[in-house]
Each structure stands twice: as structure tokens, then as C-alpha cells.
Design a protein that fits this description.
single chain, alpha+beta, Archaeosine Trna-guanine Transglycosylase, Chain: A, domain 4, 6-stranded mixed β-sheet
Length: 297
Amino acid sequence: MKVLSVKEPYATFIKLGMKKVETRSFKTSYRGELYIHASATQISKRDQKKWAKFVKNTSFQYGKILCKCKLVDCIYMTKEYVDHMKKQNHQEYLCGEYKEGRYAWILKDVVPLENPIQAKGQLNIWNYYSEFEIMDFMNNIEYGYVDQKKQIHQKIDDKFSEQYILQSPKEVIQNKIGVCWDQVELERYYFKNNDWNVKTYFIVYYDQDMCPTHTFLTFEKDGSYYWFEHAWEKYRGIHKYSSKRSLLEDIKKKFLKDLETFDTIENVVLLEYSKPTYGMRINDFYHYCEQGIRIDI
């Protein structure tokens, strides 16, 4: 869903139907449904008092998507347009920056959200995806890898350990394939505007031969914890937990069960890691994740 971040009190004015024109210094060709997001920048107490008379019994919200509307037009402001707004629609004129050479974005069909959505926001029009939309996107990605020659491998073969290279999100989308390491980076990209305390983890079983691993993404929303899993097909889905500990314990248990190594639990290490450098080879990625925060559960 397309989103536009607007400073308060103007985001609330749009939600309440008091402001139907958003003024910008640039034009847009986009037309269609649009979320209005109240940016995180808080207005001063003096300005709060100034605008309170316009929105009695309404508190301003910050860092949340407040309503949905339709962006139906983008009008270049001529001197005549500015003069017309000043004389014929003075309330709208006070709620924007009307100046010749700027643009008026025309909004219609505003619908307030019953439950505003916490989000980070960006400049210009940006994208917000729910966890379910992200899973739909991920369902376009197959399991496999791309080697250093950009060749696609639809299964893990004997060339993987020497030829694998970590893809960027853009490359995963283009190639429509990736192992869990690649897929988590695409998930990280899709979740970047969700203010849900997103974490990524690397779990590894150390032995003398294979050292199997798995990477996965979690997020916290409305007091609950979620494991977002696509690459591990057996457990594909969005799994809800009451605590972060119960989530991580469950994944560790499933990881061990698949390896059939319950008797050697001390060989399993779980680490939280941040965004890596794309283009890493397999050993570099292992070493990078091993520098992460060790989680003892």
C-alpha cells in the first residue's frame, strides 16, 4: 500500500476531513489508494494550543498510519490558483503552503483507521506492507541459490560451499530464488518501514563436517512475538508466541528435531545478527553472523 507521511496536526486534519489538499514542492504521477501517516516529528506545545480549537477532544498521534484515502489529482499552483484558495477556501489555505510553482495533491474518500498502524515513515510516497502481504510476496521466491557467475541452482549441490554468494533483496526479487540467508534479507527489506522491533537470527549446529544453519526473522507486535518463516517450507507461516524466549526455544527445538540430534544440544549456537554486506561468500557470511549477539536459551 502506498503511504504519504504528513506532519501533525495536518495528518489529523486529513483524517477528520478538514484538509483535502496536501501541498508539496514536487509533483506526483501516482493516482489511487493512499495511506496517510502522521510523521514522528512532534509539534511544540504552543502549536498544539494554536490548533486545539480546530480539533477539540482529539489528541495528535505520531508515527502512525491514521487513515486511508484516494489521491485523485496533482495540480500545479498558478498565482490564480493560490489567490482562489486564499479567498474561497481559507481554512484549506491555512493548512498548507500555497505558493506559485508548488503542487496541490487532491485527496478524496477519506476513511479513518479504527486501529492506527505504527510505522516509521519516509520522505515522498513510500510502501507499507502488512506481514500477510509480505508472505504473499515471499511465496514468489523458490528455494535455491545463485553462484558467483550469476548461475541459478534450484537445489543445494556440491558447488554450493565454494560458489554461493549472498544476494541483495533486489537480486532475490529478480532471480526469484534464494536460500534462507537470502530470503531473510528480502524479508528485512520488506519489513523496514514496520515499527515492530524486527530481529534476525542465525542458528548453527557445530560438528566436524557440515555445520548446518538456518536464518530467520522475528518481530514484536501489540505485545506478542512472531516468527516469520518462508524458506523452511515445513514450518512456512507466521507463528505467534507470548514471549521472545518461547519463540526462540520453539525454533531451536524444531531445528534440533530436523537434525535428529537432541542428545547434543550443547552444539547448537543461536546469534542475533544485523544487516550484512551483500555479495558475501559462504565463509564470510558464517564469520559475520558469528560476530553477532549470542542468545542463551
